[in-house]
Amino acid sequence: MATATKVAAAPTETPARPGPRRGRPLRWLPLAPATVMLLLFLGGPIAYCVYIAFTNMQLTGASSTDFVGLDNFRRAFGDDDFRNAVVLTLVFTLLSSLVGQNTLGLALAALMQRASRPVRTLTGSIVIAAWVVPEIVAGFLLYAFFRREGTLNALLDWLGLPSQNWLYTLPILAVSFANVWRGTAFSMLVYSAALSEIPKEITEAAEVDGAGGLGRFWHITLPMIRRSIGTNLMLNTLQTLSVFGLIWAMTRGGPGNRSQTLPVFMYDQAFNKSLIGYGTAVALLLLLVGAAFSVVYLRLMKEEV
């Protein structure tokens, strides 16, 4: 006769409701000093600069500072020199950042991935050496390269090719090349890290399927590193928009105003002409240009996800 076994049901315990978190405000206490420092040393100067942009503050020649509203911004949009600086800034950014640094950095990263170790070491050392050189030093080096009696013309004369004063005939191209020479290392490092993350199995499978080198690069490599491309473009663009020392050392915005980008124009108005209020208004407009580029890049990166 089978004996029935009784299984005792385990008593169910009602989970206790969590009590109020009394220590929650204290979790943000360690961040308080950093927040205060940021507001004091970053937010404070920004707010003061915004205020100055709406005044007629001058370094010399004015006994008082008055609030002028939007007059500085109206003056900027009606100033031919300001519009020229905006165009040159966009040309400089397009040539040296979007096309130059980005394309050359990606090409170097792709080539170094296939090169031998000694070649990678030598190439990386040369490119990064140009990046770590201070901006003002790089400006004087490139000035010596492009000037009428400089290295480039000496090389062209030795080859029997016509030479010219590059800093006078093509100043914006000369400073764009200088910025490419100095800043390509950052793009190369970003893309080298991105390319190293691509699984080799994917490229090997595409190669077995008959895809050529260009096809693999276009249909596999670029789509897989598109977020790195967007991030690199955004950072490079913001850095290029603020380049001042390189251009000032090479051309000082000249001849005339043919290489006067917005940072150089802003410096000239604020310190050479003592128009601090007007120069600060131009700085705020430059900040808005950088913000517009950032929004565009972030929206493009978000749509690609």
TrEMBL record:
Name of the protein in its database record: Sugar ABC transporter permease
UniProt membrane topology term: Multi-pass membrane protein
Highest taxon in the source lineage: Bacteria
Claim: Transport is one of the keywords in the record: yes
Residue ranges crossing the lipid bilayer per the database entry: 31-54, 85-110, 122-146, 166-191, 233-251, 275-298
Chain segments carrying region Disordered: 1-24
ABC transmembrane type-1 domain residues: 87-297
Record-linked PROSITE patterns: ABC_TM1
A Pfam family hit: BPD_transp_1
Organism: Streptomyces rugosispiralis
Gene3D superfamilies recorded: MetI-like (1.10.3720.10)
Protein keywords: Cell membrane, Membrane, Transmembrane, Transmembrane helix, Transport
Subcellular location(s) per record: Cell membrane
Family: Belongs to the binding-protein-dependent transport system permease family.
CDD domains linked to this entry: TM_PBP2
Cell membrane listed as a keyword: yes
